[in-house]
Amino acid sequence: MPATRRQDRSPDPPTQLFNSGFRASWWCRNPHLQTLWPYLFRIRPTLGYRRERLELDDGDFLDLDWVDEPDRDAPIVLIIHGLCGDSSSHYVRGLASSLTAAGLRTAVLHHRGCSGESNRLLRSYHGGDYRDIDLVLRTLQSREPSTPLFAAGFSIGGSMLLNWLSRNSGLLTAACTVSTPLDLAEGALRMEKGLSRIYQTYLVSEMKRRVKRKSERVRLPVDLAKLEHVRTFHEFDGLVTAPLHGFRDADDYYSRCSSKQRLQYIETRTLVIHAADDPLTTARAIPTADELPVNSSVIFELSRQGGHCGFVSGTWPHRPKYWTDRRITDFFTSFLL
After folding, report:
1. pLDDT tens digits along 212-227
2. pLDDT tens-digit readout, 300-310
3. Is the pTM value of this prediction over 0.85?
4. I need a surface site. Which of 63, 145, 206, 283 has the fewest CB within 10 A?
5. For residue 253, what are the CA distances in angstroms to 34, 121, 221?
6. Which of the following CATH numbers is that of domain 13-182+262-336: 3.40.50.1820, 3.40.50.800, 3.10.50.40, 3.30.830.10?
């Protein structure tokens, strides 16, 4: 049903949640500029990654990229990238560089099919897919049972991490998510509107390309002729994500995997960083105070600006600062004092 003008505008989020310390640069206040500036213009730190492949019992594999510069006994942070991202993504390299400078070790978890090589099984990954995170974290814990573990998830990686956190406690010292689509249905709807369709076109095209590449080595239960006509996230999730991962349809996937409904079950100290102007979701996805855990385990820091995985600050364009790098690093290191 066509949305009215009022429905196109997300309702104002609760003012009591505007507690973020982020302040957008005067030259970078537009949500799309906040989102695209680091993607297009950020000088990505040079990091020496060491790749480790984990062979899985189901016949598939997961690739981790490690930054090992600090002390080998230092705490470990698992970074979980967003949709179609990898260890070279600007937000991953930025955070990994900041954590390394603070003396922490970093491992970047690549979702299945995101490390430069198609995975072996039919399945891929989705916003509620927390089992690979569980496997990796328990592998790291078994190797170094006395080493503090942290995790940071971006965008869809944050959705996966929050789903895991709502089902597990005691393994991580603390966690953080950035620009998470807390309500997957709201995110899919927003991506069909206005300039947000730019991101949808790019991401859906990339996902279709990966499905076609994978179909060359694995017989997929996907109608490739129909895939050619897919233009939206809802169409892609209905044709590909749902059947590959056991959901009835796209709406069933969104309903069962949205992380907003799981926040109340999180016991691990978790920082959720979100911008009210995120162009990949709506304000309706922002939780109310009643939807947050009563034990204050979740710190929801909401800023009026910041875009999607942007959070660009700094006085001048030639010297931008990326606020989340410092905020997440300070949050994690505060548990080590």
Report:
1. 999 998 899 999 999 9
2. 999 999 999 99
3. yes
4. 145
5. 29, 20, 17
6. 3.40.50.1820
